[in-house]
Amino acid sequence: MRRRSCILLSAACLATSLAISFAGLSAAVAQGKYPDHPVKILVPYGPGGATDIVARMVGDEFQKVTGQPFVVINKPGAFGMLAIDEMVKSPADGYTLMVGNVSTNAITPILYAKKMSADYQTTVTAVTNLVDIPAFLLVTAANDFPPKTVAELIAYAKANPGKFRYGTVGIGSYPHYDMAYFAKRAGDLNMVGLPNKNGAPGVIQDMLRGDAQGAFLNVASTAGMVQAGKLRALAIANRTRLAEYPDVPTMKEVGLPDVGTVAWNGLFAPKATPKPVLQALFNAVQKTLKSPELVAKLKKQNFNIVPSESLAAANLWLGTEIKHWQTITSSVTIEVPQ
Known about the structure:
The chain is an alpha/beta fold and 338 residues long. 47% of the residues lie in helices and 19% in strands. Helix 1 crosses helix 10, helix 2 (50-66) packs across helix 10 and helix 2 runs antiparallel to helix 11 (292-300).
């Protein structure tokens, strides 16, 4: 009887050991096989903006690292909800992902929680942060718009209440909140927001025509226009001045240290995606972001490469960002469509 019990116990231990080994083997196989066909990346904006630029640059290098294309699909509209909705309704297999930013993946889940087709925090997971993106506080040079410094802009807005029009990439986007918070901090200025559904490229066109006179926009999308003298950079939301623009002060230097967003782009996936697939994806993207060629390209755009240390760190980062924007959206009142 005692011998039989020992045999049964040994068999049970062996079965458990085999199960554990098989599970580990399955995970390794899953990681080894992913990706084995093209990966679709949803971008919640049209072509040409910073989010699109980052997705395409990372995608080109991802293909070299993995041998599989990173196919970028532009899906603008509804404050990022169209892209998020398509991603979470797609098979959670690592082949439909999203590159999003502060507006779409931190602010939209707060402002439009009731309009989303599914609960954001239980259906979306962060894979990794990708880059931080400095932003200019810009004014147009069209129609001889006079301000050449932040102080002059504030003075102009005070002398012309309700006449200064600023562009935004959408109602409730982070550039919208940045300008609204700028108005609040600069003395409750009376300024008018002018949203453009075509994102940063649309706002740039509004400013080139003089329809919009100012905006917070990322450096990557606007550098050419600044260098051509068509847009005027008054300050930059960044930790330091940029070497390419040594005469452009930081927001801190002009006395408004908490105004303006150092934006980010991150990679997101459906939360139900198997952990081995997420880990394989994370590993591939980490390797991608270390490519000297990609590093040089991103640096040229003045993007700061800031990958998360792990999948857990990525989700901690996203949670912190959402909490931060819950504070901001509570302190600045913007009427958003519901």
